[in-house]
Specification:
387 residues; Rossmann fold
């Protein structure tokens, strides 16, 4: 049976190539899609309790009707699942069900679910097929595409993992209507990122459709998902293992990941931290003379208009620098950061500690001056100290 697909985005990686299918309502046809690919047998559905309650029965029914034998592995919601102990529990379940090498894992959920499920698929029996079925905006526009899988370490995000491509990515935009508003808005940070790194016209489209973005308008969201997937597919096809251009996808993530780690993965969800990271990394770029004030004002204005947080926490420079040192993008001890030159054009820059310390001091001084002008000086105990 032929499946109707609104958009099909190819990810060209030789014998690891696959398609991203974008179609409202495709969740009901997921069994037919996988059957059409020649898949069969058991399907381990890795999901969290929230997504299982919303879509688990629908997916299991669609798989069963197509002749598959699905079973569910539940992991916690959020970053709690992205750990070695939870990876071990997934592997234990695969062993208990005697999943064979030609059978598969289906990641049903957000970026965390996809990362840990994909990593499990990469190491179980030295690699079994897996399918990405992302249910959050962050996952649909970013993390489900490109083959990055893994778990966090207490000292840094995504320090343990592997590049392992899915067989297919199946995106149903309709599931986004059940996404919590905080999760939705957080996902918009990754959307804005794509405009900043690769497509000025797309950035302008986002500026013109802020209300549609916030309202999850059906005439806006499929286009947004498709364009983000197209950009990521093009970047990944040219640099699968992040040795060159793919590093631009980390815009906002050097500071963003540091903030997540500093906050013990509890203070912000991923997209919120990335939004803050984009603001700070653009500010660094202006301080270093890489971009104009107009660039950062345009970006920061859009970030604020969609409802993302924009105020940095009160932390010491040494805390920020130390957290960035544990990032997987550190090369020979040097932190590398993606910085904008123009909207739609970025470059990767090694950070010099003394220069970033001076930038940080200027940032804190400016924030203190704004606070003084408002007449709301924080208590002395809460003021940021340089170290």
């Amino acid at each position: 049976m032929t499946i109707s697909v609104s958009h099909r985005v190819p990810v060209s990686l030789g014998d690891r190539s696959y398609d991203i299918l974008i179609q409202p309502g495709i969740l009901r046809q997921i069994g037919q899609v996988l059957q059409g690919m020649g898949c069969s047998g058991r399907v381990a559905i890795v999901t969290n309790p929230i997504v299982e309650k919303l879509y688990g029965r629908l997916v299991r029914r669609a798989l069963t009707q197509a002749g598959f034998s699905p079973f569910v592995i539940i992991v916690p919601d959020g970053e709690r699942a992205k750990t070695l102990p939870w990876l071990a529990k997934i592997l234990d379940a695969l062993v208990a069900h005697r999943v064979e090498r030609q059978e598969m894992i289906l990641a049903l959920g957000g970026g965390v679910t996809g990362d840990v499920a994909g990593f499990a698929a990469s190491v179980y029996l030295r690699g079994i097929p897996f399918v990405q079925v992302p249910t959050t905006l962050v996952a649909q526009v970013d993390s489900s595409v490109g083959g990055k899988t893994g778990v966090n370490h207490p000292h840094g995000k995504n320090l343990i993992g592997a590049f392992y491509q899915p067989q297919i990515v199946i995106i149903d935009p309709q599931v986004l209507h059940t996404l919590a508003n905080r999760q939705w808005i957080a996902g918009l940070a990754e959307v804005i990122k794509y405009g900043m790194i690769a497509d000025k016209q797309f950035f302008q489209y986002l500026e013109q459709h802020v209300e549609g973005l916030r309202a999850r308008a059906e005439d806006v969201i499929p286009h947004v998902i498709q364009r983000c997937c197209q950009i990521k597919a093009e970047v990944v096809a040219g640099d699968e293992r992040e040795s060159g251009r793919r590093r631009i996808l980390n815009y906002g993530h050097t500071v963003g990941h540091a903030l997540e780690s500093w906050g013990h993965y509890k203070k912000w969800i991923h997209g919120e931290a990335v939004g803050l990271g984009m603001i700070q990394e653009a500010s660094m770029a202006q301080y270093l003379g890489l971009c104009s004030k107009h660039v950062i004002e345009s970006q920061d204005d859009l970030i604020k208009r969609v409802g993302l947080p924009s105020t940095m926490p009160q932390l010491k420079f040494t805390d920020l620098w130390q957290a960035m040192q544990h990032d997987k993008k550190v090369v020979k001890g040097h932190i590398h950061c993606v910085m904008p030159q123009q909207i739609g054009d970025v470059r990767v820059v090694p950070l010099v500690r003394q220069s970033i310390r001076k930038w940080f001091s200027c940032q804190q001084s400016a924030a203190l001056n704004v606070t003084k002008a408002s007449g709301k000086l924080p208590p002395r105990s809460q003021r940021v100290k340089q170290k």
